[in-house]
Amino acid sequence: MFKKKLAVLATAAGAALLLAGCETTEMKMGSQEAKTVATGSAAGSTTAGASDALQHCDAPLGTVSLVENQEAGWYTILTGEYKLPPTANLLRLLVQQSNCFVVVERSAAGMRAMSRERDLMASGETRGGSNFGKGQVVASDYALSPEIVFSASDAGGGGALLGGLIGGGRGRAIASLGASVQTREASAMLTLVDNRSGVQVAASEGSASKTDLNLFGGIAGRHGGGSVGGYTNTPQGKVIAAAFMDAFNQMVVSLRAYRAQSVPGQGLGGGGRLSVDGAPPPSQTTTPKRRR
Hints:
alpha+beta; two-stranded antiparallel ribbon; 9 strands; about 20% strand; 7 helices; Rossmann fold; 2 domains
């Protein structure tokens, strides 16, 4: 009986190699292997414990605010199904650690806090010299908008298929092992818009994947050996964080070599170069005169 159990475990281990291939338990971000993602802290231009994989700028390119579409389907899944906080919390850290932008507060909670302090000053409740007067809020030059394009979790369907083909006790062991192999992957997008003109300055996409392997969670756990299934249940948030870091890194690389788009002879919003039949040339259009 003991030899038979050893044979089952050996077969299951072989199946694990088939399922996992060359995968490791390390996070993969783009073409790099990330051991730490979105870690540490930032204070002004000083950072501590930041990931070595994060791109860095010598000087900020301007101020930026984080804008999330909370009515989008991906946001509902993020906060509802995965129980994760808003992506803005993650991006604030990444952006400040990179020193590529100065982050300004525009969240609903943050704006309420700023208004509350001004209301207290206006009512005379704050100490003298508190200086919460007008004209101090820093403008947001750019808006950074995140979006999760794709996020999936595979609970080891390949193992279940192998188990069905083999059948018997060994087949059940392989199917059980397959259920303990989970591949998570996510793809994220970032867009950067100039707040003064409304022109999209940059856009980028990032991806990340991770395979977790638990050799004994599905087998030993059923035979009183104690379940270690938590080892395989790495939070989906870690993959999403890596995807956003990858997207931000791609954007920073492009921004370092940034050249503004221009429309020769027309300028932005001057009519464009793709003329429509019957439309007057841009040079012949007139701007309505303002009433005095």
